[in-house]
UniProtKB/TrEMBL annotation:
Belongs to the NnrD/CARKD family. Its EC number is 4.2.1.136, 5.1.99.6. This is Bifunctional NAD(P)H-hydrate repair enzyme. Pfam families: Carb_kinase, YjeF_N. Binds 1 potassium ion per subunit. (6S)-NADPHX binds at residues 62-66, 128-134, 154, 251, 304, 356, 420. InterPro entries: Carbohydrate_kinase_pred_CS, CARKD, Nnr, Ribokinase-like, YjeF_N_dom, YjeF_N_dom_sf. Homotetramer. K(+) binds at N63, D124, S157. Bifunctional enzyme that catalyzes the epimerization of the S- and R-forms of NAD(P)HX and the dehydration of the S-form of NAD(P)HX at the expense of ADP, which is converted to AMP. This allows the repair of both epimers of NAD(P)HX, a damaged form of NAD(P)H that is a result of enzymatic or heat-dependent hydration. Catalyzes the epimerization of the S- and R-forms of NAD(P)HX, a damaged form of NAD(P)H that is a result of enzymatic or heat-dependent hydration. This is a prerequisite for the S-specific NAD(P)H-hydrate dehydratase to allow the repair of both epimers of NAD(P)HX. The keyword Iron-sulfur does not apply. One of its GO terms (biological process) is metabolite repair.
């Protein structure tokens, strides 16, 4: 699992590290990493390093210092370097001196637009982890002139470091070089960061427990249930799906079909769409209600069940079974409007809620807002449930405080019914006995892979995402180191 640390924790770790390090050494190490990536980008985008031009956008702090030092290193490789100082009197003293010694040019803000517009590369050292709020107008005006690829130092300026939120002018980078550890912005707003390159500055020993996690493919592969020689259809966990209605039979077909594809073993269906489910998935044992469905190890409840009396009864029946439940779609609306339905749940029984933004707002009374991680963490605590917030970037919080982030693999999953496919995956992994937080995260990972593989560059239906689940699982198993 990869760790991600908030800027407060990075700062504390940096302070501990600085106590035993020569002044300036860390910054030079960081800046050297920036220069290596800048040279690589010049080579890729402008066909050479020597003789090409880079403009540094330099803010008032150490982030600007990194850019200035990187400029001095680039001069040694024959790059023409010019720096725009947003606050000349506050520019990093040693960095500026190093750039000047190396023959780098310092531009006034007035003369900078043509230089920025014609540069082969722009290095964004406007602001780093001390950034608060969108770019200030003077910085935003410079960014408007950029035509070249952008290398961001630590993070793209204007993007909130701990939330990834963009609430005004901000840099869009092709690549970001960060130091010591990944910060939330890198996983919560990968589009603005471009490729993220991590430079080791010796911080790892000082970091402590991560604030967020990202699953590696090896984690997903290790968690994905595989039948063993002594397994039969029951021992791997039977998934129950309570979904669909006369109006929405498709939700039942998608959620239960997804569970069939996710794991070996068995899927039971309970609801009014039993005939259509049997027709699509002859391997499913389908009945009319949860009461006569037989034993399962986890229930998926909600997709297409409706939000009236019948839907509430279905959800209450699932919650009352004493096994883990993934409550999705209409189940979330029912919980939002009739929270007493949760009385059917024994508080020790795992519950996974999988809202999209609208359902989240219904459930909690307010939309997730810019701090999506904070919002999901609070909801997990409030409902004593794992909460998976859907979106381009999926966030999964456990009531014990663990949070993981699953980055999108394109946006093809923004299609009707793809959420039903996700709930089937979560349910199957719960039935297999995975820790609910991990089950939700692993399901989100394979769901995103299935979306990418199913689409393969053109729009894909939810049924197409479902059909790509075996390829996604195959991909995970093949990529396992
Ligand atoms: N502490 C260390 O040992 C290291 C720090 N490093 C660098 O230092 C950076 C942090 O440096 P600082 O703490 O000096 O702070 P920053 O350089 O992140 O920001 C400092 C200045 O940016 C300005 N600023 C804040 N918000 C802004 C906005 N929205 N628009 C425009 N300007 C804004 C403020 O005037 C502030 O003084 C890191 O991101 C990293 O790049 C690296 O050199 C690695 C080592
Ligand atoms: N722009 C996007 N990029 C990537 N994934 C997305 C995007 N929009 C939605 N998704 C994913 O698609 C799924 C949609 O689920 P949901 O909104 O419940 O749809 P439905 O109710 O139609 O099934 C979620 O897994 C969500 O994370
Ligand atoms: K920056």
């Amino acid at each position: 699992m990869r760790g991600i640390w908030t800027t407060d924790h990075i700062r504390q770790a940096e302070e501990r590290l600085l106590a035993g390090t020569l002044e300036g050494a860390l910054m030079r190490r960081a800046a050297h990493g920036v220069a290596i990536q800048a040279a690589a980008m010049l080579d890729e985008h402008a066909g050479a390093v020597a003789g090409r031009s880079a403009v540094l956008l330099v803010g008032a702090g150490n982030n600007g210092g990194d850019a200035l030092w990187a400029g001095a290193f680039l001069r040694k490789r024959g790059v023409g370097v010019a720096a725009v100082l947003l606050a000349p009197e506050k520019a990093h003293t040693q960095g500026l001196a190093a750039l000047k010694r190396s023959g780098g040019r310092v531009l006034s803000v007035e003369e900078s637009p043509q230089w920025i517009a014609s540069a082969d590369l722009v290095v964004d050292g406007i602001v780093g982890i001390a950034a608060r709020g969108p770019l200030r107008p003077d910085a935003a005006a410079l960014v408007d002139h950029i035509a070249a690829p952008v290398l961001a130092v630590d993070l793209p300026s204007g993007v909130e470091p701990d939330t990834g939120a963009v609430e005004g002018p901000a840099v869009s980078a092709n690549r970001t070089v960060t130091f010591g550890a990944r910060k939330p912005v890198h996983v919560l707003n990968p589009e603005r960061c471009g490729d993220v390159v991590l430079v080791d500055i010796g911080l790892s020993g000082e970091l402590g427990e991560p604030d967020l996690f990202q699953l590696d493919v090896a984690d997903v592969a290790a968690a994905w249930p595989m039948p063993g020689p002594s397994d039969d259809k029951y021992t791997q966990g039977v998934t129950g799906v309570a979904a669909g209605s006369a109006t929405y039979p498709g939700a039942a077909v998608l959620a239960s079909g997804s569970a069939v594809h996710a794991t070996s073993g068995m899927v039971r269906y309970a609801g009014t769409s039993a005939d259509v489910v049997r027709w699509h998935w002859p391997e499913i044992v389908a009945t009319g209600s949860i009461t006569d469905a037989g034993k399962v190890q986890a229930w998926v409840a909600g997709p297409g069940i409706g939000t009236g009396r019948e839907g509430k009864d279905v959800l209450a029946a699932a919650l009352g079974k004493g096994v883990p439940v993934c409550a999705d779609a209409d189940a979330i609306t029912i919980i939002a409007h009739q929270p007493d339905v949760l009385d059917a749940r024994d508080p020790g029984t795992p519950l996974v809620l999988t809202p999209h933004d609208g359902e989240f707002a219904r459930l909690t009374g307010s939309p997730p807002g810019p701090d999506r991680v904070g919002a999901v963490r609070a909801a997990a605590d409030r409902f004593n449930a794992v909460v998976l917030l859907k979106g381009h970037c999926t966030i999964v919080a456990d009531p014990d405080g663990r949070v993981l982030v699953n980055a999108a693999r394109g946006s093809w999953l923004a299609t009707a019914g793809s959420g039903d496919v996700l709930s089937g995956l979560v349910g199957a992994l719960l039935a297999a006995g995975l820790d609910p937080w991990l089950a939700a995260g692993v399901a989100a990972d394979v769901h995103a892979r299935a979306g990418q593989l199913g689409a393969d560059g053109v729009p894909v239906s939810a049924a197409g995402v479902l059909a790509a689940i075996p390829d996604a699982v195959r991909q995970v198993r093949a990529l396992k180191p």
